Each structure stands twice: as structure tokens, then as C-alpha cells.
Amino acid sequence: MFMTIRKPLIISMVVGPLLATAYAVYLSWNGLVALQDLALLAVMYTLVAFGVTVGYHRYVTHESFQANRVIKYALIILGCMSLEGAPIAWAANHRMHHAYSDREGDLHSPHHAKNMVLGFFHAHMGWLLEGRQADVNKWAKDLLDDKELVFLNKTAWLWFALSLLIPFAIGGWTGLLWGGIVRIFLTHHVTWSVNSVCHIFGQRPFKTKDESSNHWLVGLLAFGEGGHNTHHASPRSARHGLYWYHFDLSWQLIRLLAKLRLAWNVYTLDRVDLPRAIAAGAPGVKVMRLWPRQMTPALAASGAGRGAGSGAPVRRLPSIADMADQIIPQKRAGNRNNP
Q1: Quick one: pLDDT at residue 74?
Q2: Which residues pair with 66 in a beta bridge?
Q3: Strands 266-269 and 287-290
Q4: Distance CA 224, CA 57 (A)
Q5: Which H helix or E strand runs over 250?
Q6: 289 sits in which H/E element
């Protein structure tokens, strides 16, 4: 039943915000936009973008850091508000992308179409219309063992609805337009640009097995996600920017949470290996762990502070390379430098 209505739903999800944004531009052109509406757009975009970049991507998918229950819930709920799907399916699709990046099996590579225009469209949003998704039992089995995450996964539509009700309650119909629908349009296309723009245009400081690249504009709009080549060179790292002037607001938020002791066990680019990898154009970069969780003997004995602060055992993040080997071992043989 769902597969029957999937395509119309996705088309409406793409076309609806586009038309609404065109109408919003028309209103602003005629001076019919209030400062409150623009403020709602800015605040909602920022919060939801962090939900995607820090929550869905760096926390859930790659477990680049750990956090307490409040931060965990906040980040994942904000991610649900993006209308980019439930967190477990999002993570499974992304892990599969890493394993097959720009090869047969990649859900959204731009390099398997007849020409670059069609490839760009496919990577940007065309793949959503095809209905192909990663099997969560293969690519996100560890996440299915997290009861709190499964709860948030099942209630994702509730949190998305809340993301529309909040701007409507504050700003009425125009608040809904700017803080809700225009925000969805911007969030979607900025996120999708990582799949399209960052696999065609930009710089490639690392010789990864794919065509991933770093693009400064996507990095600016997506709070650091434009450091895509760096990310593919070191998927576990919570930091995607290479230099201080690389805009990676998501990394700065994670650093702030760690300094406030709201996050710990943060993985980042190894400060010794990084200069060597850049100079050599290596396919990967080692990671180092910062801000380890300090526990007293009493806390350690009670089990507090493990996992995501919920008292659950620390889940082992499956190697993306290992998961791919289970499916296509003959294609992965001899290529272990870039998990």
C-alpha cells in the first residue's frame, strides 16, 4: 500500500515546498513579509539543519560522539522535523552510500546516468522517486537494538507535524509559510546538494575510492556537510572541515556540547595523521578520540554514562566496509583503505 502512494507523496513533497517558496518570494518582492517571518525561517532552519547534520548524520549514522539522553532526543527530534525520513532509514541509506559510493549499488550517485545533467538530477532528488532504499536489517541492525531510537523512529511524523504547528502558533499562516514550508524547501535542497554538487564539483584533497569533493558553498549552507571528500576519507570523524576557515558549524556545536560535558567520546581527525594524509593525497585519515567520559568507580559499577546516557551498553558501530563485504565481497576485496 505504501509503495503505491510513495511516488505521489514524494512528488508532492518536492513540488509543494517549491510552489510555496515561489509564492513566498512573490510576497517578499511586494513587501509583504514581516521580520517575524524571516526570524522564524532562520531559527527553524538552523535548528532542523543541526538535527540533520549533527543528529541524523554524525550522531546516529556514524556515532561520531556520544551524548546524554536529553541531547540525544533533542537532536533526533529536530532531524525528524526535516521531512527527510525517519532516522533509522536515513542512516541505513547513508551507510549504504558510503559502502558503494559512486559504484553500482550507490542509491544516489550522479555518475551512472547517460549524461551529467541526468546524473545531477538523479543524485539530487531523482533517486527518491525510484523507491529503492537500503535494507535496515543489513545496514542499521545496531540501531534497531536502541529502544529509544526505535521509539523516535516510529513517531517521526509526529515530530514533523510539530515543526509545522510551532511556526503556525507563533506567526499564523505566514509563519507556517516561512518557518514551515519554505524551511522544508531550503533544508531539502541543501541536504540533497551534498549528494549532487559534492560528487561533481569542488576540491578533492583526498584520493578516495569515489568522486566525493569538498564544496565551500554547500559547507556554508549545510553547516559543514560540504566537506564531503574529507568525510569520505574519515567517516567516523565529527569534524569535516580541514582548516580553521572551513565553515563547519556542526563541529563547533559538537565541541561546545563536549566542553559543557553534554557529549563525550568525540572522534575527530587525528592531528598527527592529518598533515601526512593531506600532503600525500591519501585515501583516508585516522581518527582520534577526544573528551572521553570521566566516570567515578560508583558510576562505572552502576552502568551509568554508558551508550547514549541511557544506561544501555555501548553499541558497537558496524564497519561500513564489513557490511559491504557481506553483500559484495568480490567487489570489496583488496580495498580496505577507505571504510
Answers
A1: 98
A2: 264
A3: antiparallel
A4: 12
A5: helix 249-259
A6: strand 287-290
- Give the type of residue at 188: H
Long-range contacts, stretch 251-259, CB < 8 angstroms, 24+ apart: 251/224, 253/50, 253/54, 254/54, 254/58, 254/64, 254/65, 257/65, 257/67, 257/71, 258/65, 258/290, 258/291, 259/291
Tell me the domain boundaries of the chain.
2-332
- The amino acid sitting at 20 is A
Cα–Cα distance list, 112 to 118, 120, 175, 176, 197 (Å)? 9, 10, 41, 38, 15
Cβ contacts of residue 87 below 8 Å, gap of 6+? Answer: 55, 56, 60, 76, 79, 80, 143, 149, 152, 153, 156
Say if residues 54 and 63 touch (Cβ distance below 8 Å): no
Q: What is the 3-state secondary structure (H, E, C) of 115-165?
A: CHHHHHHHHHHHHHHHCCCCCHHHHCCCHHHCHHHHHHHHCHHHHHHHHHH
State how far the Cα of 77 lies from the Cα of 166, in Å rounded to an integer. 14
The Cα–Cα gap between 17 and 329 comes to 41
In the block, residue with C-alpha cell 559534492: 198
The CA distance from 290 to 30, in Å, is: 51
Burial class (CB in 10 A: 0-12, 13-18, 19+), 292: exposed
- Using alpha carbons, select from 232, 238, 234 the residue that is nearest to residue 267: 238
In 3D, which of 254, 266, 260 has the Cα closest to residue 292?
266
pLDDT at 6: 74
pLDDT, averaged per 10 consecutive residues of the chain (339 residues), comes to 71 90 91 92 98 98 97 98 97 98 96 95 94 94 97 98 98 97 98 98 97 97 98 98 93 98 97 96 96 62 40 43 40 33
Q: 51: which 3 cell numbers?
A: 538535527
Say whether pTM exceeds 0.85.
yes
Q: Please give the radius of gyration of the chain, using alpha carbons only, rounded to the nearest integer.
A: 20
**DSSP assigned state of 60:** I
